[in-house]
Design brief:
By secondary structure, the chain is an alpha+beta fold. The chain has a single domain, classed as Arc Repressor Mutant, subunit A (Orthogonal Bundle), CATH 1.10.10.610. It is built from 3 helices and 3 strands.
Length: 81
């Protein structure tokens, strides 16, 4: 089961890489409006800061990604620090 890693405890370059991979992947639907990558990155960072999204680390696969609070709940991931 993935673990939540506090975003402020992740190296800045590493966090930026995780966010970029997330916004460039499928599943980041912004509706009809198209945003540039810098805007998408800022929006994800804002969500991380407001606990609307989290960095989830899968120890078995050694991967990290962004999950929304809703997805974390559905997956049974504790978002409590």
């Amino acid at each position: 089961m993935p673990l939540i890693i506090p975003h402020d405890q992740i190296n800045e370059n590493t966090l930026l890489g995780i966010i970029k991979a997330y916004v460039l992947s499928e599943g980041t639907d912004y509706g009809q409006v198209e945003y540039d990558i810098d805007t998408k990155i800022k929006r994800v960072m804002d969500q991380l800061k407001s606990s609307k999204a989290f960095v989830a680390y899968d120890e078995a696969e050694e991967t990290a990604t962004i999950v929304t609070a809703e997805k974390a709940i559905k997956l049974g991931i504790s978002t409590k620090a």
